[in-house]
Structure formats: C-alpha cells, structure tokens
Amino acid sequence: MGKRKKVKKKKTKVLPWFSPEEEGLLNSFLENLKDTDLTNIKDQIPSPQFAQALLERVPSDPETIDLILAVRDAFDQKNVRKAVKKTIYRLRQRGISVPEMESRKAIPSILRAPESVEPSAYLGPIDGTGSRGVLIIIPQIPKGVDVGIGAVNYEEGIVYFLYGKYSKKQAKEVNDLFFDQSRNAVEASLSHAATILEKAYKKDEGGLGESSEGYLRLRPWILDNLSLLDHPVIYDLIPPQSISEEILTDSKLDKLLGHELMETWIIDPERIEPTMGEILKAEDSPILVSEEQKTSRINEIKEKTIAELYPYSKRQLMKDSLEEMAYLFYKLDDEEYARLCLLAASSMDEKDSPLRINPFLKALTERSIDYYMGMTEEIAKSEEREDDLSPSIIIP
Length: 396
Prior knowledge:
Mean pLDDT: 82
Shape: elongated
Number of strands: 5
Distance between the termini: 126 Å
C-alpha cells in the first residue's frame, strides 16, 4: 500500500487583535458602508490595523470600490497596502472591474488635452458654410478610449459622425486628424458639445442616413449622463447686458470679417449669383443714366437679396453661429472679437427698416459680391492674356 498523503492544514487567517469595543465599531462600520463619508475616512478609522481588518472583511461588491480606494489613499502602511491589493484581487476574481492600482492623481492623457481620465470634448471654428468639427473622448477603465468625431452643419444637420472604441494609439491618430482638420479648435464641456450634436441631429431626424449612425450609438450615453444646455454658454462668460450699450459700426464689422477665422464667411455662389446678374444689368442699364440712380438701384437689389436670403429662421441660425464663434474667440483669449461676434449676433433680433438694413448681413452680402466680382474679373483678364500670348497662324 502506498503511503497516505498528508493533508496540509490551511493556515488560519489571523486578524489584528481587537477589544470588544473595537470589534463592535468594526461591525458597525461594515453594516453602514453605504452611509460612510469618504472625504474624511482617515478620521473615522482609529488605526492602520483597523483599516487592514476592514479591508479583509468588506463584501465583494462593486459598491465597496470607492471605500477601498479611499482607504488606500489615506494609509501608507505596508500592512494596509498589502490588504488593499488582496481585496482588489478578490473583487477581480469575481469579475468586478476595479481601477488600476497606480495613483489616480494623473494618468497621462493620450491627447492634447490637459491630463485627465475624465471625458472631454472639443469644438472647431465655424466655416462659411455653417459647418464645424466636433470631437468627444470618453476614456474607458482599465483600457481603451471611446471616441466620437465628426462635423455638423447649422442648417443641414450632421454631416458625418464616427463613433467607436479605439486603442490609445488609434485614439491619438484620430485626435491628430481632428486637430489637422479643425485648426484653432477649443475645449468645451461635454454638455456643450452634446447640445451642438443633438441640435444637428434634430435638423434631419426624419431622413436619417449613414451620417447619423455613429451619433445614434453615442446618443443613449449622452441622454443618460448629460444635461443639454438651455442657453448659449458664451453668455455665462460675457453677460449680454455688458454689450447692450455698444454699437455695431462699419469699422467694427470690417475688423470682425477681416479676422482669419472669418475668411470663409462668404455666401454660397449659387445663392448670390442672381444678385450679381442684376447688379451687372443695373450698371449697364441705358435707363439709369446718373451714378446716383445706379447706386440707388444696386442698393435696392442688395436689400432685396438680404430679405430673401435671410428670413427670420435663417437669421436665428446666423445668430447661433455668431454666438458659437464668440465662445471660440473667448476660449482663444480674444475677448475683443468675442464681443464683436455678440454684437453681430444681437443685431439678428432687430427688424430691418428702409433706413437701416441689418449691418452684419449687409457687410457679408457686399463682401461676397465683391469677392465673386473680383474672381470674375480675374478670370476674364487671365483669358485675355492667354489670347494675347497665343501664336499667330502664318499661312504660306
């Protein structure tokens, strides 16, 4: 017969010795874990030995994670650190996700944003078509990053939006792509970015296509975790009453539209082309003899164009765009241009009259006409030069 194997006796876990009073305090602590104030946890735990015993007796429940991490941060003693590791290991063995053991003070961000493991968002400038880039970053624990990247148009809705889980390396590549396409993008709150996306989504909710598929996957998280804004966030930074006494002069308009971020703010050529045709007819009209008559007729054409291109609904879209540009300028530390944008935005609520056409829309219309007229002249001059340089045909 073979020798019987000796059964190894399990070592009995020896906990620190407690007095009846300490044992009662520990039991009371364990019974009221949900009501524990974690902000002053060290004041509630009488000793490192008590902390060790507490950790070894806490139930394997996700609700205990914050307590475990709070005790870890409050005590540096070796026995407590060891108990923390064992407790976290026990939770993970039961399939409970626990943050990494490294200090939560700073996990290096993979993006250009300030170091943080919190979700973040970025908004690009608005171009002349009313489009802008949007980036949302949601780090996942213990690894991976959920990223939503796309573009919205204030008139048409979501242009495109991609959403998915990425590795840190892939997320960095997506981040770099966004900042290459949306230069001068600024950080915004998640609620701000979500409000922009939700408004764009509702522009074309009835005819959703591939452009909105990514957002539809992110939308449940947004609606469950964020509160959408009920007013433009720029007014939390620059109160509207602070600009109520200011006047939007021609020089201020020239300055605003002269900024490099406003260079693309030009009316679409298809929308302005009929106006240009009418202006050319007025300039060549044999009926309008004097320059005064021609100028008066051209001003009438421009006023009619503004009324047709910018009814109330379009003016409100322009107002939204200007308020968002004001926020972007403010975040770029250029409050002067932010205030100019708000002045232009406030003018959208004013009604036109025979004596005063909206100054911003007038400046934008005249700028667009001048731009396309200049392009037409350049093309005509270029064609003339090509004709002059063409070699003559010599017939023998």
